[in-house]
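Reading group handout, session on sequence-to-structure problems. Before we discuss, look at one worked example. The prompt was deliberately terse, the way you'd type it at a terminal:

> structure Fe2OG dioxygenase domain-containing protein

The input record follows.
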Amino acid sequence: MAAARRLDLPVVDLASAADLRAAAKSIRQACVEYGFFYVINHGIEGALLERVLAESRKFFEQPMEEKMALRKNSSHRGYTAPYSEKVDDSPNSRGDSKETFYIGLTGDDNLQNNGNQWPSEERFPSWKKTMMSYHANALATGKKILSLIALSLDLDAEFFEKNGAFEIPTAVLRLLHYAVGDVNASEDGNIGAAAHSDYGMLTLLATDGTPGLQICRDKDRHPQLWEDVHHIDGSLIVNIGDLLERWTNCVFRSTLHRVVPVGKDRYSVAFFIDPSPNLVIQCMESCCNETYPPRFPPIKSGDYLEERLSSTYKLATV
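And the output record:
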C-alpha cells in the first residue's frame, strides 16, 4: 500500500472558555475544510481512558465463543465479530476485519437505551462502572463541542439543547479492536475499516496511540488521496457525521476515513452522539437562503440512522 501523507488538523482547546468565539471560528474552519479536528483539555481524564482500554483488551482477548455469547442484539448493543460489518460494496471485500462492542445509555426505560449487554461481573467486576463513567464524561464533552459548533453556525450556543436534540439522545460507546492484520491487505479491499463516513451527528475518538486512521478530503478524486491522522497525547479526534452535514445543508463536511493495518494490534474508543430519534432534521436557518436553498427534505433522526445502520449489516457476508 502506498504511504499516505501526514495531515496536521486544527487543535481546539476546550479550556479556552474566555474566548468562545475564537474556538467556534476554529471549529468552523475545521468542519468546512476537513470535517475532522482535535480537542484538548476536554475533561475526560487520561486514567479513565486507560481503564476503558484495559477492559476492552481483556474482553477482546477472550475466545470467540465467549464473545459471541453477547452478540449484537436488535437494539444494536453488544459484540460484532470480524467481517460482520461492511460499508464497501466491492465484490473483493469481505467486510471490515475489526471487532467491536456497542454500549448505549442506561438508567431509564427508553426503548433505544434498554438493550445493553454486559460481560459477567465475576470475570469483569469493573466493566460496567468503567464504561458508564466514560459514557457520561464523553456525553458531557460532546455537548460542550456541539455548543461551540452551534456558535460556529451563527446559532444560539444552546441550539441543540433547546430544539430537543438531547431530550432522548442516542449516545453510543463503541469499543474497537483491529487485529495485527496484513499491512498489504488494503490492496485487495480487506482492511480494518473500509472507507466510509460516519452516519450520525458527531463522533469523538480516543485511541491507544497506534496509527492507522486516514482521511480522504476529496471523495470524488481518482485515485483517492489518503492522509494520516497522527496521535496527539491527551487529545480526542472529533469528526462530523452525515446527519450533521445534511442538517447544515453541506456547509460542514462529513469526510471519508478508514483504518489500515500497521502490523500491530490497535484499540480505540469511539463515542457517537446523535439527536433524539423523533427530532425532525431540516436545514438550519443559518445554512440556507434564496440562492442556496435546502438540498434535503426533512427526516426524523431515528429513521435516517436506522436506514443507514441496516444497510451496513445487509452488505456483510456473515
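Points for discussion. First: Confidence is low (pLDDT under 50) at residues 109-113. Second: The longest helix spans residues 127-152.
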